[in-house]
Amino acid sequence: MDAEAILRAARLLGKVRINAHPVPLLQDEDLPATKEDGYLVQQALHDYLCRNGQGDLAGWKIGATTANMQAYLGVTEPAFGRIMSGTMIENGTSLASRGFCNPGIECEIAVRLTADSEGGNYTRENVADLIGAVLPAIEVVENRYGDFAERGTPTLIADDFFHKACVLGPEVPDWESLDLAGLAGWVWIDGNEKARGNGAAVMGHPLEAIAWLANTLAAQGGKLKKGEFVLTGSVTPVIWLDSFPCHAEIAFDDIGNVSLELS
User: Which segments of the chain have a pLDDT < 50?
Assistant: First the structure.
């Protein structure tokens, strides 16, 4: 893609996300054809969002980290997206559902970083040195695409792989003794259990996802930074919301819960 096509695609994706509208079909010349194109548009999208009141880069999300989600989305590997500070929602907040476009809830183990990543040789073991806390999180995703399988992976990457917002729970700084792979998590909608899973669903262990992200960013000339957080991927299938008002809550053994009300 040339520079003008990247900017056109980013402007379109940014406008429809801010206004909670579906993503229209991109013109062929503005359609990312490869995942590399997708990440170039994603960077330009976040420059656009920053200039248009969505805050600064605060963290990262990793999508398609489970075999079930890869099969559901028709992809064969994870993908990352950027999270802006203006899309972080306080735990327990009530928001109008009209601000969302076909929203869904994902149940995630998140981490807070206390050091920058350096280089691209991270493993599950040594990436732990970057992590200062673990916390429960909701990722609010949107199906802005209709039949997303037809849109193609590069377009989903360009648009942060369904990301809309997130809700972070309380931080657990003494996390090293926790069995992150064994942590059980649940999604509750209006008090009814809708899904459950555990940390092992995320690439076998949530820290495998963090290592993957650190190495992938390094290959693109980037890095994780102290103070950022990372959503490691949903331990359950996405729960799409089709009735409002509703109360969404996720809970994990040992690290707590987090909730959101959509009216």
Answer: none
Q: Which residue has the tokens 């229209």?
A: 24
Spell out the alpha helix ranges (H) of the chain.
3-18, 35-51, 67-73, 148-151, 153-158, 206-219
Q: What is the pLDDT of residue 71?
A: 80
Dmax (CA) for the chain in angstroms is 51
Q: Quickly name the fold that domain 57-262 has.
A: Fumarylacetoacetate hydrolase; domain 2 (3.90.850)
- DSSP codes joined into one string, 230-262: EEEEESS--EE--SSSEEEEEEETTTEEEEEEE
Contact at 8 Å (CB) between 230 and 224? yes
Dist CA 77 CA 165 (whole Å): 22
- The secondary structure of the chain in percent helix, strand, coil, rounded to multiples of 5, reads 30, 30, 35
Phi, psi of 135, deg, nearest 5: -155, 150
Domain boundaries, the chain: 57-262
Q: Which amino acid is residue 19, in one-letter code? A: N
Closest CA to 159 of 21, 58, 9, 50: 9
* Residue where the block lists tokens 């062929």: 28
> Quick one: tokens of 71?
């099969």
